[in-house]
Amino acid sequence: MSDSRHEKKKQFCTEKKGGSGKKLGFLALVVIVAAAVGVLLTGQGDSDGYTRIESSGGAVRINLSSIDDGQAHFFRYASQDGNIDFFVVKSVDGVMRAAFDACDVCYRSKQGYRQDGHVMVCNNCGQEFRTDLVNEVKGGCNPAPLTRQIDGAQLVISERDLVQGAWYFGG
Fold first, then answer.
1. What is the DSSP string of 54-91?
2. How many Å apart are CA 49 and CA 42, to the nearest integer?
3. How far apart are CA 90 and CA 29, in angstroms?
4. In the chain, how long is the greatest CA-to-CA distance?
């Protein structure tokens, strides 16, 4: 083999030294940054997708500006009877709506709902419910309505109303 061909083969067949440590360090940094961004986006670092919320003065209060994007926002309230999960969504008709993350039929599965465009989808049975009918239609597999009111720039849900839905989430 001629020297130039031998050198060319050697160039492509030998391992390059010194770069692998830098690559691993960079990869580790990317993973750490991605994890930190995930924690910031969920608000509480909850891996379950719920934002923990507490009551004050007998009610939970949520700033409307943080939930008026048309996306379902999922919350978890810790009561004496256990965790109570609910979601809030501004529907296509502009109304702020709230419901327990459960229904009368599938609540035992403890799978709740997910949003797909302008519908909420039961994670257990797959039925779809328009967001503009949340709080309007109840029973069956519809998201169980949760009474709410607007007070200035906040959505307010009474602790009493939340606790009435604790049975959906009990053992």
1. --BTTEEEEEGGGT-SSS-EEEEEEETTEEEEEEEEE-
2. 7
3. 37
4. 87
How many whole angstroms separate alpha carbon 97 and alpha carbon 90?
6
Residue 59: count of CB within 10 angstroms of its CB: 18
* Tally of helices (H runs) and strands (E runs) in the chain: 3, 10
12-35 per-position pLDDT tens digit:
454 455 555 565 555 444 444 344
Give pTM, 2 decimals. Answer: 0.72
148's tokens: 């709410």
β-pair partners for 151: 154
Residue 144's CB is within 10 A of a number of other CB atoms, namely: 20
Span 104-126, pLDDT tens digits: 999 999 999 999 999 999 999 99
Q: What are the Cα distances from residue 98, in Å, to 1, 24, 132, 144? A: 77, 46, 11, 9
Residues 158, 59: Cα–Cα separation, whole Å: 4
